[in-house]
Amino acid sequence: MHVSTSLLRFLRIAASRPPTRIIHNHGSKCNCPHRQARPHNIVRNSWHVQRRSYANPADRDDFVSVLDNPPQLISTRRKHGPGIYVLAAIPITAFLLGCWQVQRLGWKTELVARFEDRLIQTPLPLPPTVDPNAIHDFDYRRVYTTGRYRHDQEMLIGPRLHDGADGYLVVTPLEREGGSKILVNRGWIAKAKRGSRERAQYGLPQGEVTVQGLLREPWKKNLFTPENKPERNEWYFPDVESMARVTGSTPVWIEATMQPDLIMTWDREKKGVPIGRPAEVNLRNNHTQYVFTWFSLSLATTVMFWMVVRRPPRGAKARVRKNIEW
User: Fold this and answer.
1) DSSP code at position 257
2) What's the angle, vertex CA 112, arms to CA 110 and CA 118, rounded to 5?
3) Cα 299 to chain center, whole Å?
4) Which of 5, 22, 43, 230 is the most exposed place for a label (fewest CB within 10 A)?
5) Strand 165-175 vs strand 181-190: parallel, antiparallel, or unpaired?
């Protein structure tokens, strides 16, 4: 049988090595010559040894030990994008808005208390001359005055709802002694009574009358109210300055008051007599709800933010070994 040159080389290597240690089934070791491996077994074992030596990374010249190049412990947590900054800003913004509403609540509570204190005071006679710039210090102050209604200059503001019914606010200039005129909001009338003929018998008092009501600051228009059309006598909100200019009156606004009485209210509505407002402060104070809303939103978004960015439990599941040199 022909043996190749490489095979002969392997035979020489095997012959030069000490006898192979053989392990029996019962676990004892034997170096007896009669139990030495046959040549073909020696060739096979040598080839297996040589193959394992080349497969072991430690036998290579460029091998680097883990001790020489230790790995780094890195986290396996997913990195967050720019949205995490938006999520972090929401609870902070909501908390600041809640603090601002706390300040607004204190301001509105003090304002309502000041107006209610003015309501319980004795009504003052309205002076013949009123400075419009001084009305701010007398807002919600009860006053009374005497004069004659100028029904020919009457203005209707609306539409306005009263207990679910559609109607208008009646604003009539009151001409006082000496020729000065002020604007009086007489109250609400139903839409069916908007014409002068429907109110001629009861709703248009003639002669001298005494009006008692609340001295109020000029109103402010909101964004959703359409613009007034004075040239067509169409009014959608009480623009005191414009109304005073059209009627030649002083920009002084008085809201007529009456005792809340259901029977009287029904009778006035039927006859077309304007229904005056009660002598009370009607400022809305919803800042307590706003405080609760903003602080609740801040707390909820804070919990959400913590759930998104919280650190996972320490352990092997949260860390992996990484070595960029391997």
Assistant:
1) B
2) 105
3) 12
4) 5
5) antiparallel
